[in-house]
Amino acid sequence: MKWTAHLERLRAHLRRLGGLLPREERRRTAQVAALVVLLAAVAAVPAVGISSDEAATLAAAEREASWWGGMLRSPLRAYGHVDAAFGPDAERPPLAKAAMGILHAAGTGLGASHLFSFRLAAFLGAAVLTALLSLLGAALADGAGALLAPALFWLAPRHFQQALVGSVDLPLATLWLATVYAYRSSLDPAIDRRGRRTAALACGLLFGAALATRRGAWLLLPVLLLHWALSNFRALRRLSWRERLTVLPSAFPAMAALGPPVVLATWPWLWRQTGPRLAGLLAPQLQPLSTTLAALALTVPAATLAAMAAGVALSAARVAAALRGRAAEVSLSDELLLLCNGLLPLLLAPSRSAPGAGGAGPWLPAAPFLALLAARALAWAGRLLWPARPWAATAAVASLALAPALWSVVHAHPFESAAFSAAAGGAGGAASLGASREPGGDAAAALLPALNEHAAPGVAVWFADLAPEAVRLYRRDGRLRPDLRAADGPEAADLAVHQPAGPRDREYRTWTVFGSARAVAGAYLDELPLVLIYARPGAWR
Amino acid sequence: MPPIDPDPSRRPGVPGRAAALWREARRHAREALRGWLARAGPELRRAASRAAQGARALVWPPTPERWAALLALAVGGLGLQALAFQARLSARLPAPLDWRAAAALLERDARPGDAVAIDPSWAERARVALPDRVAATPEAPLPVLAFPRYAAALEDLAGLRRIWLVSLPEAPGFREAVAADLAARAESVDGPQRLGALEMTRYDLRSPVLPLAFLPGRLATARVALGGEPCPDDGTGAIRCPGGVRLSRQVRQVGDQPRNCLLVEGPIAPTAPLEVEFPAVPLGRALRGHAGPVGAPEGPFSTRIGVGLAGEPLGAVDLAPGPPWQPFQLDTTIHAGRSGDLALSLVAAEGTRPLCLEAMTLP
C-alpha cells in the first residue's frame, strides 16, 4: 500500500476522533489542551519519585479509602474505627485523598502500578484545571487566551510537578478556580435567573469540596466577599448593614449553607468531637509573605512573571478606566474578581500542609488567575503591536516567554521540585544564594536502578530522608529489590541514602559510622547533588 | 627599582607578588580612566543626555502601543536571557570527564596532609568523583571540605599542610571568596590548572596547624568519670555513664558544618561533672579547641569546660549562646615540651542538645 493510502486512512481516523470533540471551538480547544496536559503527565510520571509529603498523603488515601469501603459493608463497625483511619492525617481534609484512594483501587484492579494509580487523580485534576483555564482564557482573550493561559501556568517546573504527584495543592487550585467560575456565573446578568441559581448552588458545593480538600480553602469566602464589596462599593455605601445583607448574592448563602455540610459529610473524623476538632482546624497558619514571594520569584520563569505582572497592571488600568467611566466595555466586576484571586491568595498563603520556601503550594491557588491575566496581556500586546496580524505578534512574544519555560521544565525533569529559574541561576545559583533545597526525598527514585544493580545481596539500606511509606510504595511497585532490608539508622545500615538538603546531621552520623565521607553514587541537577548514597566496604559492588 | 633583599626568607612569596602586581595594575587603570574622563567628559554628558531623551521618547507620552512594546521588550529580553542561560549552562558545568581528570591528578599528586576544598560549597559531586585516600599511602585520608569560607579565624584546617581547591569558576553564583581566603593563608600557590569546566589550584599553607595531640582521637585511652563514678566503654567505641550520659567520637553538624569532635550526650548536673582524662598528652604552647551544640542554633545553651593538667587546674572556658562553633585557647607555654595527663571537665550545662567538643595541643 502506498503512503498516500496510509495518510488517507490516518485522516479518516482523525476525522472520526474529531467527531468526539465538541463542535464549539472554545470547548474543543479546552479539551485538546486538557488532553495534551494529561498525556504529558502520563508520559513524564514514571521517573518522578515520591516525596515524604506525598508518601504520607498516599498512605492516608489508601487507609481512608479502605475505611469508606468498610463503611459501605458495615457502617457501625467502621464508625468505631474512624479515628484510626482519619486521625493520623487529620491535618489534611479527605476529599482529594478519597479520590486518590478510589482511583488507586480502580487502577490497580486494571493492572496499573500502585504509584501510577494513586497519581491518576493528579492527572485528571490537571486536565480539569487545564480545560477551565482554556475556557476562561478564551473568554478573556479569544483563541490566544485559550492556548496561552494553560501554557503559561504549566510551563514552570514546580507547577508541572503538581500534575505528576499526589498532592492536595493542585486539587485545591482546581476547585478554587471552579468555585470562582461558578460564583462569577451566579452574578452574570446574561444568564437567566434559573441558571444563576444553579450556578450559586454549584458555587456552594464546590466551595464545600474545596474546604474538604485543604484547610486554607476557607480564604475563598473572604476573597469573594471582598470582591463583591469592592465591585459594589458605591451602591453599598448608601445601604445599612441589614440592607447590605439583603442584597448579598445568592452564592454567599449557598457557600455558607453547603460548604460546612459537605465537609462534615465527607470527613468522618469530624463526626466525633465535632466542635473542638473544627475549632482546631479553623485556626489559620499563614506562610510569611516574604517567603512565598521569594519562592515565586526564584522558581517561576522570569518572562512568565513579567507577563503576569503586566497582566496585573493591565487589569488595574482597566479598573481605573472603568471607575473613571472611560471604558464602557470593561466589566469592573470581572477585573476585580481576577485581581482579588490573583493577588490575595499570595498575601494570605495558607501553609499548614504546604512545604516551606520551595514548594508551590502557598501560591498555587493564585497562579491560574495570574496565568489568565498574563495570557490576556500578551494577546493585548500582540493586537497593538501588529493590528493586521495580531496572532503573529502574540505568537512571537509568547514564544519568547514559553520556549525557555518549556526548556526549563524538560531540563529539570524528573527533579522539578528542586528546580529554580534562570534568573536565580538554576539549582546551583539558587544554592549559592542560600535558597532552601527541597528536602522531600523524591530525588531518591533516580538512584533506585543503581541501588538495585550495585547493592550486595541482602544488605540493609537506610533511606534517611524518605518516609517509610515511600519505601513501601517503591517495594510494592517492584522498583526496589525485595532482598534489600530496611534499616532505621546508620548503625544498622550497610548503605545509606541521603538528601544533602536542610539539616544534614543524619548524613554526618553516617560518615561517622561508615568511617568515610565518600559517596558511591549521586543524582544531580545542574551539578547540585540531590541525593547521595554512602556504603560500608563491600556493600556496593 | 627596589633594592635586592639579601635575606631570601624575607622576599615576598608568589601570592604577595601577585597582590602587588594587582595593586599596581589597578592604580594604572584608575589613572587612565580619570584622564580619559577628563578629556571625554563633555562629549559623554551629551551622549548620555541624547540617550535619556531617546529612552524618554520611547515611553512618553504613555500610549497603549508604547506600553505594549515595553511589555514585548521585557518578556522578550527575559526570555532570551533564559534561553541563553539554558543553552550555556551545560558548558559552564563540569562533565564526568573533567571530574575524572581531577581525580587522576589527585591520585598522582596528593600527599598525606592534603585535603580537597570545593567551591562552590554545594558542588559535592566531589564526594563521589574524587578519591578519599591518598593513593601512595592509602592509610592517609584525603578529606573533601565544603566550608563556605576558609579564613584562618574561621577554620583551623588542623592537620592539613596543602589544600587542593577544586572550583567551578563558570558555575552560576560562583564567588572568588574561597580562593582569596586560601591565598591569604598560602605561602605558595600552584595553579590554577584548567580541567574542562573545573579549575584546580594547590595552596601550600604558610602556617599549617599541626596538632601535637588531637584529643577526640585519644578517646579510646581516656579515663572518664561522671560525678566521680567511672564510666565504662560500651563495646562500640563509646563510653556510657550513669544517667544516660554518653561520650563518643563523631562527625556531627554544628551550625551548618560537619565537625569531627567528642560528642557529649545526656544531661550533666552541675553537682556531678563529667571528667575526661587523657593520659600522657604531649604539650606545646597552647591548648586550642572549639565547642558548640549539635544542630541549628536554637534555644538556651551554656556549658563550662574546665581544663586540668596532672591534677592542677589550667583554666576554664565558658560557652554561652553565640557563634555555633566557638573557639577557645589556653596558654600552656610553661608546660611546652612535656607530656602530662590532661583532663577536661564539663562542669555545667544548660539545654538538652548534645555538645560537640574538639580540642588539640599545639606546638
Description:
The complex is a heterodimer of chains A (541) and B (363). Chain A has 541 residues and is mostly helical. Chain A is 64% helix and 5% strand. A 5-stranded mixed sheet of chain A has the order 2-1-3-5-4. The radius of gyration of chain A is 25 Å and the shape is globular. The relative contact order of chain B is 0.09. Chain B is of the alpha+beta class. Chain B is 28% helix and 33% strand. Chain B is elongated, with a radius of gyration of 28 Å. The longest helix of chain B is centred in the first third of the chain and has 46 residues, at 14-59. Chains A and B meet through α17, α19, α20, α21 and α24 of A and α2 and β10 of B.
Descriptive terms for the model:
heterodimer, A: about 550 residues, mainly alpha, 24 helices, B: about 375 residues, alpha+beta, 6-stranded antiparallel β-sheet
Give me a quick take on this structure:
The complex is a heterodimer of chains A (541) and B (363). Chain A has 24 helices and 5 strands. Chain A is mainly α and 541 residues long.
N-C termini distance of chain B: 40 Å
Low-confidence region ranges of chain A: 350-358
- Terminal CA distance of chain A reads 53 Å
Proportion of strand residues of chain B = 25-35%
As laid out across the biggest beta sheet of chain A, the strand order is 2-1-3-5-4
Average pLDDT score of chain A? 89
Alpha-beta classification of chain A: mainly alpha
Helicity range of the residues of chain A? Answer: 55-70%
Name the beta content range of chain A. under 5%
Outline of chain A, from the CA principal axes? globular
Query: Largest interface, by Cβ-Cβ below 8 angstroms: which chains and how many residues each?
Result: A-B, 54 and 46 residues
By DSSP, the count of extended strands of chain B is 18
Task: Give the overall silhouette of chain B.
Answer: elongated
What is the strand tally of chain A? Answer: 5
Number of alpha- plus pi-helical segments of chain A: 24
**N to C succession of SSEs of chain B:** HHHEHEEHEEEEEEEEEEEEEEE
The description of the largest β-sheet of chain A is:
5 strands, mixed
Fraction of residues in helix of chain B: 25-40%
Oligomer: heterodimer
Mean pLDDT of chain B: 86
String of helices and strands of chain A: HHHHHHHHHHHHHHHHHHHHHHEHEEHEE
